[in-house]
Hints:
- The chain has 334 residues and is of the alpha+beta class.
- The chain is 18% helix and 29% strand.
- It has three domains: 5-66, no CATH class; 84-125 and 160-217, Sandwich (HSP40/DNAj peptide-binding domain); 224-331, Urease metallochaperone UreE, N-terminal domain (HSP40/DNAj peptide-binding domain, Sandwich).
- The chain has helices at 5-14, 16-20, 44-52, 62-66, 92-97, 238-243, 302-311, 319-328; strands spanning 84-90, 99-110, 126-127, 136-141, 144-149, 158-159, 172-183, 192-195, 211-217, 224-226, 229-237, 245-251, 254-260, 269-272, 288-295.
- The strands form six sheets. It has a four-stranded mixed beta sheet.
- The longest helix has 10 residues, at 5-14.
- The N and C termini lie far apart (108 Å).
Amino acid sequence: MLSDKEKRAQYDQFGADFFEKGGGGRNPYGGAGGAGGFSGFSDPRDIFSQFFGGGAGGGFSFEDILGGRGGGRARSHAQNGQDATVNVTITLEDALLGTTKKLRIRKNDSCPDCGGSGAAPGSQPQTCPNCHGSGQVMMNQGFFQAPGQCPQCGGTGKVVTNPCKRCSGTGRIRVEKEIQINIPPGVDTGSKLRVPGGGDAGINGGAQGNLYVVITVAEHDVFKREKETILCDLPIPLTTAILGGIVDVPTMTGKTRMKIAPGTQNGTLLRIPGKGMPALKGGKRGDQLVKIQVEVPVKLDSRQKAALEALDLNSTNQPLQEAFCKKAARFMDN
Ligand SMILES: [Zn+2]
Ligand SMILES: [Zn+2]
């Protein structure tokens, strides 16, 4: 029966039913179409080509209709396990140094009693009696017949006659697991880490899904972050801004000191190299930017007020104010 190669290929693809109903040289759809429209087709591909404009070119491939790629007899209905996603919020300090987190996750794991086969320990899944192991049977598709997935075995070609008690024959069990994940330095909000095999177990030998850990880095009360740059506001006294001096500055890894030049204006940005965040791909840390906030004293006693008045600061060099007044003069005429 399977002496010639083509027949063999068709048998592999459609199973024994195809031949029982008359394939391989004769029209497998004989009579179904009425009006003799389909006589003379020896290859079911021809018929599909006519209907759907010829395979991939028509946007509808032969394989789409038959529900799978043609191929070997050992057609596997392996189904990969589903991926899982879990959200994790960490501190900016954790993002700087990296950290480990323990997570409790729920997933479908391969049943340890039956090794995922679904058959009770000591027994084996049996060849499906409906499709004789091919996974496919002839189905009515409108007015003709075409091979389709066997409803009894779901296309696997095997049925479990003696189901595993632990997983009720499904091959998988629901488990709750604690896993530890390593979060590398440099992660940012939106970073997605992949834990291979952390998702659901596959079905019929399919690959294990992955677990994706989506990171959120919590807002920090001192530092802001823009990629590898750390930003920090630093209030300084008016006197320091005018006369210059040395100030303490917090960084993610401890205190440092910074020189303030005489005449430093409000909003000035000063850079501290190497005190930012590391990049996720490694390399040296970014910089920290310090934004100076010159603080105007708010509770002066009469002695301080008198002293300030005596200084007559308004008559001294105020370049910003001078420049602004010149530009804005035309709006201040009347
Ligand atoms: Zn089991
Ligand atoms: Zn079957």
